[in-house]
Amino acid sequence: MSTNPVEVAGVDPTDPYAREAQTLPKLTREQMDRVRPYGEERALPAGAVLFSRGERSVDFWVVVDGAIEIYDLDEDGNANVFTVHGDSQFTGELDLFNDREILVWGRTGRPSRVLRVPRAEFRRLITAEPDIGEIIMRAFILRRVGLIRYAQGGVVLVGAAHDGDTLRLQRFLSRNGYPHRLIDAEVEDTGRVLNGLDVGDDALPVVMLPDHSVLRNPSNAALADRLGLTEAIDPDHVFDVAVVGAGPGGLAAAVYAASEGLDTVVVESIAPGGQAGTSSKIENYLGFPTGISGQALAGRAQIQAQKFGARLAISRGVRRLACDDQPFRLELDDGGAIQARSVVVATGARYRKLAVENYERFEGAGIHYAATALEQQICGREEVAVIGGGNSAGQAAVFLSRTVGHVHILVRGPGLAETMSDYLVQRIEQSPKITLHARTEITALDGDKYLRRVTWTDRDTGASETKDIGNLFVMIGAEPNTDWVADCLELDAKGFVRTGHAPDGVSAVSPYATSRAGVFAIGDVRSGSVKRVASSVGEGSVVVSSIHQYLAPAPVPAAA
Fold first, then answer.
1. Over 50: is that where the pLDDT of 163 sits?
2. Does this UniProt record's set of keywords contain rRNA-binding (predicted)?
């Protein structure tokens, strides 16, 4: 059984707590018999704490007879029990697949007999009993969705919703699947929440943790460290493969490498998903006829990689690849380092910026590079402008048109047909809430603390128009993220990584091998690549065969 908010979940199909049979499944007697050999059964009194928020590598617990309460703490430090696991039910959520700090507490609700499965045995159970593993995996995903939806086991972010740093922190938490609640200082009274914390409005945004400590406008890396999102990587450990970048290509490489027995680590500077992770909905990705958001696709891929044992180092950027070292050495921006026998460059590309006065002034204060539910909420019913003619721009325009007052798409070229998928072009042409402005470019930005007005100019007639627009979505092509390999790998004139070399100078040419043996490049960062999610995923899966070939020991010459 479960409580708050399960009791009020109603019949909303998007609410994981309304899907109790999947979110809180009961194992059959036969399944319980198969789980028992992996753990140790013990009798515990009521109130015995099994795990506490902030712990890492906690065990997997199964109720034989009794109850386990899952809870977080309210503002006064009192336990808020929101789930109760009964007979033949189990504890845990997605953090059992990694070594991050867990989000909740667990205790026995009454005298109970429980089965304690150590973390190592839990991983063996998932692999050896796939039908049980599928039940557990589905439950863990839904439980994390529930924690996010109801901000359970999370943090409180206090700040102005339109403030650039508030947006940055909220995006970071959202993209990393971390539960949080925003208190918008523009519309809500923050005095009660901040009372006694010596935090004034000039110190916002702040992140409030369950232990009542406060982080004043932390960097993404500092926030990740404090929340336990980062995992300690032994600098002396040598991985088989280090994947740099957790976009679709990098995650695909991690899934296939780890599933094929390679010791794999993924290094990502912000959050899984890359540029694709900011897409509101991808409708032409194979196998998802109703579409899937980039963040959801990345989240599933991340879990899949972790299921096979891949390590993820989140909020850590690679400053430099020491490619003359063997093994290769990835120098991180926090001063740490990771060693690997092979490297996959999957850092993708970033959107270019507009060359217009005041642009930097309004970045994070009205200028956006993603169109997700977070940005959609900020826009309200206002008019917005989307700059760009690619699929990302089209997806953003269609997504935003559902709720905003009107969407203006601006492109420098004659139209969209040459750069955008036809299904998006058709939707844009048929929507009364979207207007295309061809042969048009932004010529002025104006406002106060935030962007308030946008001026664009027709390139043929020279006529200009100024609109009261406070949210501008810039999606105008890509610049490769290759600064960290510029002194190591051969790049093309635009800075993308050249590939197609023989991985060891002798064997067959690999389409993903770079000028440095043992270093491969996939996805948008690769010169000549097709800028599509599906192609990046395909390259990430295929490159693993080249990695195996490179890592294979040289054949021993036959005796004369």
1. yes
2. no
